[in-house]
Every structure is written in structure tokens, then in C-alpha cells.
Write a structure and sequence with these properties.
It is built from three helices and seven strands. By secondary structure, it is of the alpha+beta class. The protein folds into two domains: about 80 residues; about 150 residues, Beta Polymerase, domain 2 (2-Layer Sandwich), CATH 3.30.460. The N and C termini lie far apart (about 115 Å).
Length: about 240
């Protein structure tokens, strides 16, 4: 009888060991599976962190480039302000200069021309051949018509308002050429224009300077005319 009990006990023990071994094996398999999944997640996180690090580097490079661009633009704007006064865009219409924006033609697809393209346009434009009529067709009307004709032709143009130390107020145009930079053009005509005579001129214009010019046609005349009307005390460029 004792032998049967012994055998039974051994069977129970062996069965327990087998059951424990099975549970342990399954637990080990599950643990390995979980470790494998965890390893995959860690790899994915490492890949994500590496990509994030690259993005941060690219962002830092972009910010550095943007800061340099901003610095350059601020320098250009400071130079622009020092040389050519106040600059407005066509979306900003201060009441003080409301007359400069009235009834203008603006072409949203207009672009900056080369200097040669500008000359071609001015050569074909006939605004300067109109007679000057005080308070009816004066410098502002000439500048307005040149502006509108240029915009219609796809050329980006600006109106310019000048005040001199002698109290003279005058309007003309500006164009930002792609090869010669900012160019000031005055196509104001005279009281009795000569048939076939071109009156458009390129103006040397900056704050504190004199209003001097050369006639454009014949091409870029060497004769420089200094109007001696005082120095430029205010200069407003309206794009």
C-alpha cells in the first residue's frame, strides 16, 4: 500500500513538474515575443529620433539662412530709406498721399523689366509728347499715364513724389530694372512740344541730392542738366 502511495506521489510530482514546465515555456515564449516587439518599437523610436534630429538640423540651417536674409533685407531697406526716402506699396494708401493712388491701373502680373525693355517701352510710349497744361495735365498726370501704360504693357511701375528745399513738388516714375536696379524716369512734357521730339529723361535722384537728368533719346545723351531747384528733402516711392 505504501508503494502505491509512493508511485502516486511521484506521478503527482511529475505531473506538476510537467505543468510547471509548460507554463514556464509558454511564459518564456510570450516574454521573447514581447521583447521582440519592444525591440522593434525601440528601433522605430531610434529611427524617428534620428529623423527628428535631421529635421532639427535642417530647421536650424533654414533659420540661419532666414536670419541672414532678414538681415540683408533690413540692410537694403535702411539703404533704400537713406537714399530714396519712404516706400509704400499699392496696398497701403496713406491719406497724405491719396492723390498719388487715384484711378491708377495696376496689373498683378506685371514684372520688373530689363533696362533695354524699359527703353523699348518708353520709345513706343507717347505720353511725353502731350502738351503740359498747368493744373489740368501736369506732372502728376504725366506720371500717372506712364505708370498705367507700363502696367498695361506688363511692366511693373511706381509713382514717385518729390519735394525740394525750394518748396517744389514734382511727380515722376520709378522702375526696378533687373540689370541696372532702381531707375527714375521723368516723362513730363512741355507747354509746346516739338513734333517728334522725345522728352523722357533718366533722373539722378536721391535724398539730399539735386534733381539732375539726361534725356533718354537720342539714347542716353551725355548732356547732364542740373535743374538747380534745391535739394531733395522728401522722396516717396509708391509701388
Amino acid at each position: 500500500m505504501s508503494m502505491k502511495l509512493l508511485y502516486a506521489s511521484i506521478v503527482v510530482v511529475i505531473g506538476g513538474l510537467v505543468a510547471w514546465g509548460s507554463i514556464t515555456y509558454n511564459s518564456l515564449v510570450n516574454t521573447r515575443s514581447e521583447l521582440s516587439q519592444l525591440s522593434s518599437q525601440i528601433t522605430a523610436l531610434e529611427t524617428g529620433l534620428e529623423e527628428t534630429a535631421h529635421q532639427l538640423v535642417r530647421t536650424e540651417e533654414y533659420l540661419t539662412s532666414a536670419n541672414l536674409t532678414i538681415s540683408n533685407l533690413e540692410s537694403e531697406l535702411g539703404l533704400y530709406r537713406d537714399l530714396w526716402g519712404t516706400v509704400y506699396t499699392r496696398d497701403l494708401h496713406p491719406e497724405r498721399y491719396a492723390g498719388l493712388w487715384q484711378y491708377l491701373v495696376n496689373n498683378p502680373t506685371a514684372s520688373d523689366p530689363t533696362f533695354a525693355q524699359l527703353l523699348d517701352f518708353l520709345r513706343e510710349d507717347r505720353t511725353d509728347e502731350n502738351p503740359y497744361v498747368a493744373k489740368r495735365y501736369d506732372c502728376h498726370r504725366f506720371a500717372r499715364d506712364v505708370h498705367d501704360n507700363a502696367e498695361r504693357a506688363g511692366i511693373r511701375a511706381a509713382l514717385v513724389h518729390v519735394v525740394t528745399s525750394a518748396g517744389l513738388k514734382h511727380d515722376l516714375n520709378a522702375f526696378k530694372t533687373t540689370d541696372r536696379g532702381l531707375v527714375f524716369i521723368d516723362c513730363t512734357g512741355v507747354y509746346e512740344p516739338e513734333p517728334g521730339r522725345a522728352y523722357c529723361r533718366i533722373v539722378d535722384l536721391k535724398l539730399g541730392g539735386h534733381y539732375s537728368f539726361r534725356f533718354l533719346f537720342p539714347e542716353l545723351s551725355d548732356t547732364i542738366v542740373d535743374t538747380n531747384i534745391g535739394t531733395i528733402t522728401r522722396l516717396v516711392v509708391v509701388w
